[in-house]
C-alpha cells in the first residue's frame, strides 16, 4: 500500500538531511512508488521552501550567505590578470565554434577580448559595443562594426537606448557574452545595469547564445540579472559547475563545454 503523502515527504526530508542529496530513482524504490510520484512530492516540497530541485533529485536550500555577492566592478587591469590561463583556454575553445562568413556579436569583457584576438584573421563580421575590442580589430581581416550610443564605463563601451535599438534591428549567428556571476539557481549576473541592457538585446537577436565564464564566478551574484540559463545555449568554462548548478543547467538545456 502506498504511504500517505505527508509520510513520504517526511522520509524525503530526513534522507535529505542525512545524505545531503536525494535521488528520484532511489527514493522511488525505497518508498515503493513511481518516479512520477516522487517528482510531485519534490516539487511540492520545493514550492513550500523545504528543498531545491536539481536534475535527478533534490538538494538542501542554499542560504544566500553561501553565494558571493559582488557589488563593485573590479578595475579592468585586475580583471585582465585574474584567471588569465583559464580565460585564454576559454577563448580558444570559443573560437572553435566560429565559421567563416558568420556574423558575430562580441560583448565587452576580458575573456571576449581574448576571443577577439582569436577571431582577428577570420573572414567574419563582428559587431561589438566594446571600444577596446573595436580598436583591437581595426586592422584585422575580420570586419568590425559598432552601434551608435553613449560611451561610458570602466571598460569603455557603447550603451544607451540608441545602441539597444540599433542592435535589436540586427541578426547574429552567434553572440559571445560575459558575466560577473552564475547563481545557485542558474541565473547569470553582471555589474552594470546599462551593460546588461545591451547583453539582453544581443541575446534576443542571436541564433546561438554562448556564455564565456571562468569557474571563479560560480555561485556568485551581482547587481543586475542578465537572464536565466534557459536563454543560454552553451556555457564555456574551465571546470564543471558544482551541484545543484550543473543539474539546473542541464534541466534548462544549457550545454557545458569545458575549455582545454
Whole-number tally of structural domains: 2
Number of helices: 10
Number of strands: 17
Spatial order of strands in the largest sheet: 7-6-5-10-13-16-17
At CATH level 3, the topology of the largest domain is Rossmann fold
* Helix fraction by DSSP (H/I, runs of at least 4): 25-40%
The major pleated sheet works out as: 7 strands, parallel
In the predicted model, the low-confidence regions spanning at least 5 consecutive residues are: none
Rounded to an integer, what's the Rg over CA atoms?
21 Å
Proper CATH architecture of the largest domain: 3-Layer(aba) Sandwich
- What is the average of the pLDDT values? 89
Shape summary: elongated
Secondary-structure element pattern, one letter each: HEHHEEEHHEHEHEEEHEEEHEEEEHE
For the termini, the CA-CA separation is 52 Å
CATH class of the largest domain: Alpha Beta
Structural class given helices, strands, pairing?
A: alpha/beta
Strand content: 15-25%
Question: In a nutshell, what does this entry contain?
Answer:
This protein is α/β, with parallel strands linked by helices.
Structure overview:
- It is a single chain.
- By secondary structure, the protein is of the alpha/beta class.
- It is built from ten helices and 17 strands.
- Helix 2 crosses helix 3 and helix 8 runs parallel beside helix 9.
- The mean pLDDT is 89.
Amino acid at each position: 500500500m502506498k504511504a500517505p503523502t505527508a509520510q513520504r515527504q517526511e522520509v524525503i526530508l530526513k534522507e535529505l538531511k542525512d545524505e545531503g542529496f536525494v535521488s528520484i530513482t532511489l527514493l522511488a524504490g525505497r518508498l515503493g512508488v513511481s518516479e512520477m510520484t516522487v517528482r510531485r512530492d519534490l516539487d511540492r516540497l520545493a514550492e513550500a521552501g523545504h528543498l531545491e530541485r536539481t536534475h535527478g533529485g533534490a538538494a538542501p536550500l542554499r542560504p544566500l550567505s553561501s553565494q558571493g555577492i559582488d557589488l563593485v566592478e573590479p578595475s579592468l587591469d585586475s580583471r585582465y590578470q585574474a584567471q588569465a590561463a583559464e580565460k585564454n583556454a576559454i577563448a580558444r575553445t570559443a573560437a572553435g565554434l566560429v565559421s567563416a562568413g558568420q556574423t558575430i556579436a562580441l560583448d565587452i569583457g576580458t575573456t571576449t577580448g581574448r576571443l577577439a584576438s582569436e577571431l582577428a584573421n577570420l573572414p567574419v563580421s563582428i559587431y561589438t559595443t566594446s571600444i577596446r575590442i573595436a580598436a583591437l580589430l581595426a586592422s584585422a581581416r575580420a570586419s568590425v562594426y559598432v552601434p551608435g550610443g553613449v560611451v561610458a564605463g570602466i571598460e569603455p563601451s557603447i550603451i544607451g537606448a540608441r545602441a539597444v535599438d540599433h542592435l535589436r534591428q540586427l541578426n547574429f549567428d552567434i553572440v559571445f557574452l560575459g558575466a560577473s556571476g552564475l547563481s545557485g539557481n542558474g541565473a547569470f549576473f553582471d555589474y552594470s545595469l546599462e551593460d546588461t541592457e545591451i547583453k539582453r538585446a544581443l541575446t534576443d537577436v542571436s541564433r546561438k547564445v554562448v556564455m564565456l565564464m571562468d569557474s571563479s564566478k560560480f555561485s556568485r551574484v551581482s547587481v543586475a540579472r542578465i537572464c536565466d540559463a534557459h536563454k543560454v545555449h552553451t556555457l564555456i568554462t574551465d571546470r564543471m559547475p558544482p551541484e545543484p548548478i550543473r543539474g539546473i543547467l542541464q534541466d534548462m538545456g544549457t550545454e557545458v563545454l569545458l575549455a582545454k
